Protein 1
Amino acid sequence: MNSPDFHHDTANTSWVHIVKRYNHPNPVKSWFQFSSNLLLYSLAWFLMFESLSISYWITLGLSIPAAGMLVRLFIIYHDCGHGSYFKSGKLRDSIGLLTGILTFTPYYHWSNNHQVHHDTAGNLDKRGTGDVWTMTVAEYNESSRWGKIVYRFYRNPVTMFFVGAPFVFIIGNRFTKKRMNQKGRMSVYITNAGLLVFLVLMSQLIGLKAFILIQLPIISFAGIFGFWLFYVQHQFDPSYWARNEDWDYKRVALEGSSYFKLPRVLQFFSGNIGFHHIHHLSPMIPNYNLSRCHRENALFSSIKPLTFWQSFRTLTFRLYDEKKNELISFRRLKFI
């Protein structure tokens, strides 16, 4: 559905020929990944239900791998939105709408916003859609007292991950917005209708209380983990940010999108999205081809990985300092 604009880099097109080799979806791999993920997610859901009669602590423990499988389903949903998962547009949209219901996210609306993110990531003049709210030092200093309080509240890790992420998936995604197009509104209605059917059916089968005790922690943990992945993909240092006149497609992919090197099990649950530098270079690459593309090409050998433990340092980054071209903490702001 959405393809990258390969004309941003007119000086050197060798990277275009490299990534094009990996752009083609393999229907066998796509169907196997989708069906096996759906099966494993359903199995985790069933085991959580069975554990309710034993101990809710077991249920909560099982919700973590269940949430991991839901994040993996979200990556499939995400690939469908980029047009990279199946050749058939109708099939992609059907799978996207279905996984949108399972992930509580309206397919067409989110995909549209996400494409805007790809077109504007790292562009200081085009912030505001599909990204993490990031102020420059100058903007923050010029803000009112109330504006600074709101921004600090938003950028607090507790607010972003433990309050904001579950809120967006459970409540925020249930409503249409004025700027939505017709397709976006329709996807909200379809997702809400699908969730209502899911809730009613499961309530009839296992009871409303059991449904909430199972589904609520799954979507909450998945939202937290998913938002963490999205946050780390562009909130790291050193990272590439630029004004519109200097913004470069290749640089924002290779320098402004992280190579988040995760332990193997987390790489599995995150659907290889840690190879985000390659994903931004070509969103048409299916998730199962990302690691191979990185491994097989010398172009990516100089990309410095961001490890799991190093990623926690990104929580201190709050503002972008245009003078020094770096993300800084509020504490650093005192010395500027």
Protein 2
Amino acid sequence: MSVVGLDLAGVEKRPTGLCILNGMAAETLLVYTDQEILRAIEAAKPRVVAIDAPLSLPSGRKSIEERANVHLRECDRELLRRGIKFFPITLGPMRKLADRGIRLRKTLENRHFTVIEVYPGGAQDILGIPRKQRGLDKLREGLEKAGVKGLNSQMSDHELDAVTCALVGKLFLEGKSVIYGTPSQAIIMPKASRG
């Protein structure tokens, strides 16, 4: 069961982390252009592509560039209710990321891939895995404790977040996830182990 996790960068000049998760064995790489991303996904033939980027606009917005006082989607409100920190999609650099994410989602869905939006930082909070801000070694060790194999100390923060994205995609396929928000404005998160 192959899953692709993507820690998408807002622009092609910056590295995007990509993880191909087969079972619990992770293989990661850094890619830059949309074409590189699409080629890697086509080659992996995943059952789901889990992307860390906004893949929908807030209700009532026609574009990310539109000047409007609507800044949050229903899934963003759910993150707030649960005390999970995030950047609103209309904030500065997040606009480019949202624009790229929405375009990539459309392209992938047109190629018949299942695409979900995930948020690795929030997923790490729920799974009890330290976020990258606490150190890449701690993040890697947390992922290893969750059962992921094939990780090493040379992996970048983008690659480790992509591993987390892929892990959430795997949990989604196994029915071990929940939807924050509505079907059209959803972030897929792991089920909390208790509570």
Protein 3
Amino acid sequence: MKLYGLIGYPLSHSFSKKFFTEKFQKEHITDSSYDLFPIEDIKNLPSLLKENPNLNGLNVTVPHKINVLKYLDWIEHDAKQVGAVNCIRIFAESPVMAAFTGEVGVIGHNFRLEGYNTDVYGFETSLKPLLQNWHGEALILGDGGAAKAVKYVIEKLGMDYQIVTRKPQPNSILFTDLTPRIIENYKLIINTTPVGMYPDVEECPLLPYEAITDEHLLYDLIYNPEETLFLKNGAKNGATIKNGLEMLILQAEKSWEIWNSK
């Protein structure tokens, strides 16, 4: 039985387990299963792999997307540029082959770990069909781990962006600095913060929403609830809105493709 799973901490609510369990049932994939591995310290990854020799792939969520990098034998280009990994491909590597190539797994076992960032694919693929000529600049709310893939995609698409944070930091402005004029100038607004996520559905990022127009595109990485207060406030003024569910589905399918590539 091939085993796949998710590492992170905590893992009380997992989109990935539900998605893959339903996928296996729907597509009659009987030789695979998906499980949750809540590891608080990334130092426990080697022992997890040793205890589960049938692991073929892992998804990675907070807080390990960055600190897992040092455990990988190879990192794909997009993941390198982003500086974060959310998908690991695991496959056996014989000692003979490892000796021949001169590569030995960095955690000292006879398997190879390859790191990818499928958030890049998921976000870019779900965003691009919505972009219009006037979406030349983006306002990115938050600058945590979730913002890394977003910034990379925006740069890849040749767009400028401005980061907005709660606390002062280099190259960002504060939420309290936002004015209607700034909102008018940035027609694409992306929320990468957890503000508004269930159960805190009555919360939203502090913006002058009255400045939003029907030329605005509001994208929220949150998918629960389906329509956050951030998105509702945008829709009231005619903005196009998008939540993070499609991005999650796309990145999960990309992970499956990577795990099963030759």
Protein 4
Amino acid sequence: MDSSYIKRLVFIKYLHKIGEEQSKLPEPLSSISILTFHNAIELFLQLTVEYLNCGQYYIEFMEYWDIISKKLGKELAYKDSMRRLNKARVAFKHHGNLPSNFNIEEFRIATQNFFIESCQLIFTIDFEDVTLIDLVPSEEIQELLKTANNKIHTDKYEALKNISISFAKVLTEYEAKLYPKYGNINNEFSKDYHSYHYYYSSIDATPFQKIENKLDAITDSILILSLGLNYNKYLKFKTISFYVFRTTGGGYHVTPQKEMEDSIDGSINDKYSIDDIKFCLDFVIETSIVIYSIDFNFSSTHLA
């Protein structure tokens, strides 16, 4: 399949992911998810008729099912579920009728199932295999994340290890990219990431080390906020991910958090769910996209 179709599928999956996150917000904020689900599905349907070469100038949302089913010679699934989603979208967007949490959960499940079944039917690709990792600008970090993604179901420790190192690399590469050109201007409190995400155990730490822990935590927080990242997501990521060390030779190493150190063998696989690991993977992808899109365009007039 042409790479342009893959890129658009990746974006559709990203939009679907945003909708899932929105659906888990408290009422009435969760209502916005039905608009996002609908947009993601409509983009998928538009991509499908283009891929199958069966489009026309203007297609109503529910007309896609007949057009695509006729072209395929088999039924495109979830027509009734998508009709209910479409009606809920119209009621919300045009008449201000908020959907219930029950309806939102129903639409979330229906949308997910639609993508799983339809992606395989039309593009012969598992929707699970459409990965946002391809949006990451750095090939090195892409490879680390792909390795992690392949191990999520079989070895959570290795998956989390690669994800944690990826996050440290994203930040160090960003700083290395900017420093030669602009100096350390992205964050005046930025620290050396060779010991990123590492804190002394609160049990064994001296008073000086405890102060250092607090200062490091403040430094990390300022950096995350200054880069425009989601701080609440960062806190969750920080709770799950490993401490990362970088040696003077440039190698990256990890150690689990203190509560996992005594029983490392197998404990990671029991402590965290697959959804926890996927959350960390998605956070690093999102962080990478945000950070690599940041640049500073200083002209001589601004520097005068």
